Amino acid sequence: MELPAVPYVPGATPRPEEGAYDALRVTARPGMSVCDLADSDAWTAGWAFLEAECFWEAHEVWEAVWLVLPPNSAERRFVQAVIQLANALLKEKMDRPQAVRRLCVDCRAGLNGASTEVMGIRVASVLERLDALEARIEGDDAL
Fold it and tell me: How many other CB atoms are there within 10 angstroms of residue 134's CB atom?
């Protein structure tokens, strides 16, 4: 997997070509077990994108994982929560604090009741990112 030279930020940077992440997305297929999805390139690439601040790209590949997880499962709720976190981080880059706040609330609700680890990811590490984002947004309000 190759990171984009410039992360996509709507209104600020060029949009990736249509289908740019299809090779990653297709690694999450219907009928795969949760363990296999956790090992999929779509899931692991999403985390690499998040670490590299490629938030739109993380959302793009994680959506494929979310779509094939069992409805109403803890894993599906968790993936939706991390998608919302990536979206909130993207909205922060776009200077849209109200959207960030709304997405943070949704993300926290999705993490509520999650076990210690879901699909190989420590829930506490996601909460730490969420707490830091919320602190930055509240800090911006104080200016």
Answer: 17
